[in-house]
Amino acid sequence: MPPVDRTTAGLRSQLLRQLNHWKGAAERLDDFEASAPPDAWGTLERYVGVALRAGLKTAREQLNREAEAVRAAFYAARFRPDLERVAEQVATLRRRYLQTELLVDFYVAAVRARSNPELALQLRACDVMADRVIRGPLEALGMKAPPVMTYFTTGVGASIMRIGTRLWDGSLSPIAAIRLTYHNRFRNTSLFHECGHQVAGITGWNEEFARLLRIQLAPAGSEVADTAAGWASEIAADAYAFAWTGYASVVALSDVVAGQGAEVFRFLMGDPHPISYLRVMLGVEMCRRFYGMGPWDDLASAWQELYPLSQAPPVAASVIAPLLPLLPRIVDASLRARMQCFRGKTLIELADPQRAAPAALREMERKAGGAIFTSTHWMWTECVRLTALTGLRYATEPEKGPDILKQQEQWMVRLGEATQAAA
Amino acid sequence: MEGESYEQQEAEAHPASLDAARLEAEFDVQVAQLLLTPDEAEAEHYVESYGEASNHSQSLTQLDNARAQLIKELSRLQPGESAQPVMEQLIPAFVWPAAKTAITIMGRPKLVSFLGNLLGGLIKPLVGADASSLLSPAIADAGLRIFGLETASASERESLQADPRAVMAEALAATVEETVQEISGFPPHVFENETLLTEAVQEAFENAAAAYFPNSVIKPQLRESHERHAMWTRYPARSPRKRYAKYSEPIPVEIQPGVARDLRTFGGNSLADHLRDQHGAPDGKPYTGKITLYQALPGTRGSTIARAEGFPASQLHPLTPQAAGALLGRNAMMGRRRTPARFLSSPQRLHVNQRLYRIEPPPGRVRHVRSVHSEVLINLLRSEIRLWLYLSEPLCQAISAELGKSASPSVPFRRLKRLVERTSEAFQMALAHGHLPPEILVVSETPNPDGRVHNWMRLAGRQLAAKLREWSTAQIAQYLQNHAEEFRKLCASPKDGVTLRITMTRVPGLEALRAASRGKVTKDLAAGRWPAGTPEFQVVGRAGYAVNRMGN
């Protein structure tokens, strides 16, 4: 091997500088984590914060170990080919750092959003509701509920990063992180839709439901059945939101997806979301099947008038037409079918939509007297149904809309305060 | 007489820590005296004598040091080596100041020598490596968790599993310490007879060993529980400053509503109140959960245990024989120790070796709710009685819902009647046990910072308690009948809970009681008769917690 020459020395120097840069950056990632103030971390339930910080620590430590390995390789390198291999490792280290930084940034940004005290309290209330609708059914099935954190961002739709999701750096998400939108934070039935995704992920509901849809809809043709089965995860999540909040989830969905005709009838192959028109009609069918006649009939009429099927693009129309008469069957498959993943139970045995029926919500309101939105007892025990009640009132008393949302905001803040004191 | 025997039994139970309420009351009295005394020398005496409280922390430090030394010495002993010298050297720290009676009768040197010899003999078969291997099966089966070493490092675990001598030393030290502490509760005549004393110490030793060694090494007839490897372990695990012990296994429990209603916890509340308020347990349904058991050691308050374990002190309940029988099933023996009434008013005032339990809350998020609470102020100077009932938020919402359902207030009244009855019962219990809990205050011409029940209180106390119940329940029923809507509005307030204050003025009998406090007992009082008549009443409801004995 030739002795070390000037270019090799130059390469060594460059590599050392780069290595120091990325290793130093990896070591300082905990500073980045600390950019979310302690008060913001404090708004997370303790066990959620612990799980999240443990996950971030694991990711940072893994990165630091990799950096140490590259450093060791650097100092062991004697000749140019060794240095060239180290150069590749440094490039990998750079990529790994950026992945880990993205991971840390994601969670820390979500926590940082809780720096605003009012938003933090609203998010705590969302945390409580999410935990309630995930934990109840899972524990009834003998399964462990994951730590859950919610956060607000801009945009139209909510989403979830489920626990155990493979992250950018290859690690698994230590908690379930549910993204909610600012515009909808006081009509947050989408929260329960996302929780449905989490429950489905843990139980295996999506896969079994898809198989069931193929079987149930087979008489309509394999193409129809396959299309519907491709939407299983979103239909399941919509059913979950309905089971917990009834009509409120349907009308909130309709407000989010309503738009131009082209948007309402958009059909994308491979998109797990059903055509919006069908999605809303499916929600209406759920209400009809469980509650009979009601304001959802008006919603359906309004949609049929605003978005006549005759104006749907041919491809979308060819999908919608055969599925419309099958909506009752889809409702039964999602809500009333006994599932192995639910240990032989139906969804409605785990979350009874009758508790969110308009009559039941009004009865709850009557029973509580004037305390329904002022008593921390009612907020704590019935926060999910209070959201359903707000959604129902918002839909049926639109002239009082701003006051209704203000009331929702106020009790969410109080619920956040009540649980903040306990944390 | 019941009161006299209770006075003797009260001496058995030594406070685990200084009584904060008593300290505050003493401070107030001392400051008042200091301000009022004209004599400089006397003033100096008050200042000097107030520092006596520091003696408690000094004796605790001595105890901690002795404990550390005992564990160290025990782990060094070889098989067959006498433990008597170690016992004689270190027992004094455990004996003083608790066993005053024993020391008075036997003299300290004789007591220490006797105990050293006896305990040294009792533990002799348990010292050394071979004896320590007794614990190996338990360590292998249940792990070091049951010895309180959940977080032991890998190297620690290896070392302890290879040589369980340290584990044995800790169990032995705990046994010896508790045995010696029990001595303070022996009746005086035991110390006058060597056979009686020997038998009593042996029994105390067996009971303590049954607590601190795994059941698998204890004879079945001596076990206090049934889990194979379960035992009590002192905490903090790796420190000599032991402040509490914890039972290694949570015990599954299903609590029936009637049982929860009848079981009393600190402050006279029912367990049902706690389950409703803190666990969100619905009325009338069994509650299924797990119970964790704790034991107070010297220097402990409920908050010490709670802080170490990571929960609020309000979640601790006294493990009375009644509670143990109702909740622990075949493990009920763990609650056999009787707790004097004065240690049942607050988790912050415990006696040494008092056992407590905590019902683990359901998993997930929790919300702390201020629990129901009642207080009574009997003001002899103003001939007035005030009763405050704080209704927790879940309780007042339940009452409000019931008032909204029906015009008749009988169902919600039943809930409040129980609160009033418990307050009256607490007063009667206080009279019987000679000590007023903090929730009951009697104002007379003489300050009573210790909350003692004087003879003049006992004269008509039972009748007064009965009248309190009779008058209060009638007023509550009337209030609910006539002010249901007002009550519902209070429940709709953003404040948590509702406080009802019942004020009784011109109370028949209070003048006579006041005279009795000055030594002038009327014939009626002496005969146990309460004068006829009813007070004037006022019932006021306020949103939120509004118990204020000092205010109007």
Helix-residue proportion of chain A = 55-70%
Number of domains of chain B: 3
How far do the termini of chain B sit from each other?
Answer: 39 Å
Rg of chain A, alpha carbons: 26 Å
| Amount of beta strand of chain A | under 5%
Residue runs with pLDDT of under 50 for 5 or more positions of chain B: 1-12, 23-55
Gross morphology of chain A: globular
Note the quaternary state here.
heterodimer
Figure out the total of helices of chain A: 20
Report on the biggest sheet of chain A.
Answer: 3 strands, mixed
Q: Largest chain-chain contact?
A: A-B, 26 and 22 residues
Protein architecture, described:
The complex is a heterodimer of chains A (423) and B (552). Chain A has 423 residues and is mainly α. Chain A has 3 domains: 6-115, no CATH class; 119-355, no CATH class; 356-422, no CATH class. Chain A is 69% helix and 4% strand. Chain A contains 20 helices and 3 strands. In chain A, strands 1-3-2 form a 3-stranded mixed beta sheet, sandwiched between helices. In chain A, helix 1 runs parallel beside helix 5 (80-112). Chain A is globular. The termini of chain A are far apart. By secondary structure, chain B is an alpha+beta fold. Chain B folds into 3 domains: 55-235, no CATH class; 251-359, no CATH class; 373-543, no CATH class. Chain B has helices at residues 2-10, 20-36, 40-50, 54-76, 84-95, 100-106, 108-123, 129-132, 136-142, 154-162, 165-183, 194-212, 257-262, 271-279, 302-309, 321-327, 393-405, 410-433, 455-482, 484-491, 510-517, 523-526, and strands at 232-235, 244-247, 251-255, 287-296, 316-318, 355-359, 373-379, 384-391, 440-443, 498-505, 536-543. In chain B, the strands form 2 sheets. In chain B, strands 1, 2, 3, 4, 5 and 6 form a 6-stranded antiparallel beta sheet that branches. A 5-stranded mixed beta sheet of chain B has the order 9-7-8-10-11. In chain B, strand 7 and strand 8 (384-391) form a beta hairpin. In chain B, helix 4 (54-76) packs across helix 11 (165-183), helix 7 packs across helix 12 (194-212) and helix 17 (393-405) packs antiparallel against helix 18 (410-433). The radius of gyration of chain B is 26 Å and the shape is globular.
